[in-house]
Amino acid sequence: MARSSFSVVIPASTANLGPGFDSIGLALDLYMTVDVSPAEAWDVIYEHDGFEGLAKGVDNLIVATITTIAELHECEAPISKLVVQSDIPLGKGLGSSAAAIAAGIEIANSLLGLNLSEKKKVLLGSEFEGHADNVSAALLGGVTISYFDGKEIDVVHIPKPKMGAVILVPPKGLLTEESRGLLPEQLGHSEATRSSSASSVLSAAIAQDDWETAGRMMEKDVFHEPYRKQLFLDFDAIRSVCRELGAFGMTISGAGPSLFVAVKLGTEQEVAEKLAEQFTYYECIAVRPDELGTRVK
Ligand code: HSE
């Protein structure tokens, strides 16, 4: 039975974890909540500052996702009001657009009573987002490792990774397209082989909860880090301090501009405080994996 008033909760996510470029995602315990209720016209109300630039009507990403899914199923979505609260920093490489898409998928699923399978949701999300990393993690929670070729998707889901993390969030946002524009058109065979080996070991290590090895692999990326790292103030110094603090590894969060540090579970608060003392340009936030993904309340 389709529902007309309900709430959807969606986690933030970090993507890539270094060489898992466009493939690996990890859901984090910062959340967007969307309260849905019937209305006369599509209306999106953001309850926090910082979202003023976003569309409030049919062009809003959440609404556009809902209406596109309705069209794909040859039906019309009941017009609704969406009240959004979000702790996910906007445009900071922490999956805010993937969260909006995941919200749209889950809201369409509930409003239209579609009963979409998890695989269908991640396929739709990846088609809308263009890559699978953030949106798969936002939908399923935990770690997701995806192969997506634009048409088909395979996702391996590791629901309960045992680690903590710190994200370093700079004040200025960065468009994913701008950051992707820094990447080369082509990559040499030997670099691709090396990065792909790192990605394979990273995935296997995550599956075994061997975060020592995963952290080392996170720092071996040559798919994107060498082309993007110049965007980050104090990149090398932060990596070196993270090592001194006993972190597993530090890398770019998605396309940036935030950085992601994997740490031993339970040490995230202490590491965040130490990094905050030394790197005052960044807001250092202690986080843990979200294990549930997008849920309807
Ligand atoms: N894998 C993407 C990138 C993440 O690094 O460009 C951004 O959503």
How does this structure look, described?
The chain is of the alpha+beta class and 297 residues long. The chain is globular. Strands 1, 2, 3, 4, 5, 6 and 11 form a seven-stranded mixed β-sheet that branches. It folds into two domains: 6-160, Ribosomal Protein S5, domain 2; 164-287, GHMP kinase, C-terminal domain (Alpha-Beta Plaits), CATH 3.30.70. The longest helix is centred in the middle third of the chain and has 19 residues, at 189-207. The protein has helices at residues 61-72, 96-112, 118-129, 133-140, 176-180, 189-207, 211-218, 225-228, 235-244, 268-278; strands at residues 6-15, 24-38, 43-46, 80-86, 143-148, 153-158, 164-169, 249-252, 259-263, 283-287, 295-296. The chain contains ten helices and eleven strands. The protein is 36% helix and 24% strand. The two termini are 15 Å apart.
- Report the mean per-residue pLDDT as an integer: 96
Shape: globular
CATH architecture heading of the largest domain? 2-Layer Sandwich
Q: Which bin fits the share of residues in helices?
A: 25-40%
- Pick out the low-confidence regions: none
What series of H and E elements makes up the topology?
Answer: EEEHEHHHEEEHHHHHEEHEE
In terms of DSSP E residues, the strand content is: 15-25%
The profile of the biggest β sheet is: 7 strands, mixed
As for the number of domains, it is 2
Pairing-aware structural class of the strands and helices? alpha+beta
